[in-house]
Task: structure prediction
Amino acid sequence: MKSPLPPVRVEQALRLLPELEVLLPLRSLILAASRPEEQAQWASHGPYLTVGKRSVEPAELHQRAALVAEQVKEHVAALFASYVDALESQQRGEAGAAVDALRQAGAREERAGRLAQARAWFETALALAEGLQDRRPEIEALLALGELEESLGGHAEAARRHQRALALAEAEFHQAGAIAACLGLGDVALATGQWTGARAWFARGMRLAEAGGDLSATGQLHHRLAALARRTGDLAPAGEHLRRARECLEPLGEARAMAGVLNTQGQVDAGMGREAAAVAAYREALAWARRDERDAGLEAVIRLNLAELHFGAGRLLEAEEEARRAEQVAIAHGLNRRLVQSYLLMGRMRGRQHDETGFVFFEQAIQLCQTLERSPALEAQVYQEYGLFSTALGSRDEARAYLERAREIFESLGETFEVAKVREELQQVSA
Amino acid sequence: MTRPASDPSAGGPAAAAPGAPRVLAVTAEGGALHNVRQWTAELAARIEWAPDLPQAARQLSKGGWDAVVVALGDRPEEDLTWWVDAVRAAPGTPRLIALADRPSMGLAIRAEQLGVPDLLSLPVRRDDLAQAFKRVRAVEVEAPLPLPDVGAEAAGQYALVGRSPEMLEVYKLIARVAPSTATVLIQGESGTGKEVVARAIHEQGPKASGPFVAVNCAAIPENLLESELFGHEKGAFTGAVTRKPGRFELARGGTLFLDEIADMSLALQAKILRAVQEREIERVGGTETLPVEVRLIAATNRDLKEAIAQSRFREDLYYRLAVVTIRLPRLADRGDDLLLLTAFFARQFAERYGKEIPRISDRALELLRAHPWVGNVRELRNVIERAVIVASESTILAEHLPDEVRAGETAVPETGARGLLTLAEVEARHIARVLAHTNGQIGAAAEVLGIHRNTLTRKMKEYGL
Result:
């Protein structure tokens, strides 16, 4: 019997892998299958461990690669089936069903994290839906596209899709569609710092939800209003909205929504300096995120917030532990954005301790942005934090260079709010 | 994951004698804890019930619990990790009693790694649960012992602490090598204090007035390590946003400490060799030659001779670095240094966190002595920092120690009459602990236990590990 090959570092394993789109699932697998080396926990490099320095067992990769290939095959087969379904529906004169089939294919791509591919399916669905007399399929396609654009950071495009969806939904008396469009428009306004606009959209959605007795939507809208109030520093009203959101959502047993509400509750409590209450809220949020089907994405977000809370309170040991848990969840579930965020937090922690080796977290985060997450907005955020880290360590030239890079990327994305912030930071570095 | 069911009696405490442990039981669908309800009176515990996971989290955050009983679900290892995290974060850090359907060896090892000594098999037997509750109750009177004053022999964050014969040998070597500028190789397990020794050599050497620059070769991405060491010119590669001096340059006139040197690629080893031999370097993307004016100290936790035999480390570089070699002992081999180090760290962290902790309990000290200290002094430092943070009195007690250390509680002889274990139980737990620390490697565990691997395999079978 052959003895197993020794483990290999992720950074070395990735060097052998060409950057091809078709190999992305394998790239993700290498990360997900990685583990810290046995000695890493107490080694001097332990505190600086990043995913690139973890190890993968070739034998395990061999085994799991076959499974991943099978999953890819199933995914592609499902897409083919959706397409054939759409084609047949169209030929039968059931264009609405064809739009649904295309939209489902897009949703499948979206769940697999293939957002650009999801967009192509949704756009095809929309093009077909636009020719129909029944406007509901068009509304659904527009809402799907709006949400997708928003998660890709395309705020203007997301707003345009949601506006169109709202106009159609109101004309068609499609209550649920109109509420979803208001939520989407509110989210865009919230993400771009347009507080008044966000408030108006959420309030409009709320009127519709309350009139229709839609408890779930009412709860979600209270949650959004709470998030908005928190962003504007109105913590007491935020708490009130959260209380009402819980009243709506808890009886419905909507675990994911409840986890989100409690996560915001933790942020609000933290903002009010009620640390124990914040910790309790985050802990309960984690329990909700795990109650039904484990929601790893939400779990990672909550853990990052919890880590941030400990960090803010100067409890660096707890902050580090929680950030490491978030990192582990992100690695195991292929949540690259969250992984980048966990490294940003770890880098900031090292910056506060004036630990120059902390730069490894920013370097790893940049690499992840460029190879896996491919989100320029997130990459810009990494450069921005890298700049602040360099400032803390007194490396002004480097700080300026990283901040300039962040500014360039934010400018190219039209993120005026972020550009203004980076400009301010640049001025401080130059002062 | 536990699938809790709604329960009409949820939240209501069962009647029990005052002083009995307060236990939160998270009910599971299908009645994994069904029997526990019937035994409540006999178990002499105040049991309250959480109808579901979020409710359990809510009740836990209110504090006042001595133990939490939970049945693990379909993914027991993942569940166990989640619960350990949840329980550890709860006020008063209650003890976790985990129940699992036919626990596997992997789960038993995981439980040991996480510091959960109470992993019981489902269907749960009353006696097992009663034993677990007894252990919760068996909080004994801990006698405070004064911590020795180590201030006189230790100063600053990087002080060397210890009087064991092994450390005296290290001190002698440091004293002998420091006055020269000879290259030094420091070898020792993780956490034995290689950087501390390197700093001591620097501070007592002729370049003490210069900088001490440390590079952790294992932490830095391989593709960046060269530029970190030698520096780079602006635009030398993507990401080289400015001209940057390398660590060789930054350490000019002082000491360059290359930690975890065995983690360097062969290509980079060749460049280091050139720098050491020719005493000059070039920045990445640069043409200017810069002189190397540093004392070089390297360290590793690996066996470099073995790495040479496997062609993973250059022999010529090894001989250049190992002009003088210092080997650091494991904490487990340093006898009473453990107490001195505990005292040193307790004082250091008490100062940092604005506390005064001049004592440690006999039980806590026993637990520290019984712990295997895989992470050596670094692990001890971490444990004492946590203990100082959570200690509300002036004495470090057993309850202030993390679960990994308290997991050895059952291995430490009990002085009370209750909750005593049989010799076989102690042996089974100790074997599980050692296996946990060797990540299930039977050969390594047999070596630690000092028995033949066949004997260990037989015992593992016997104890169902």
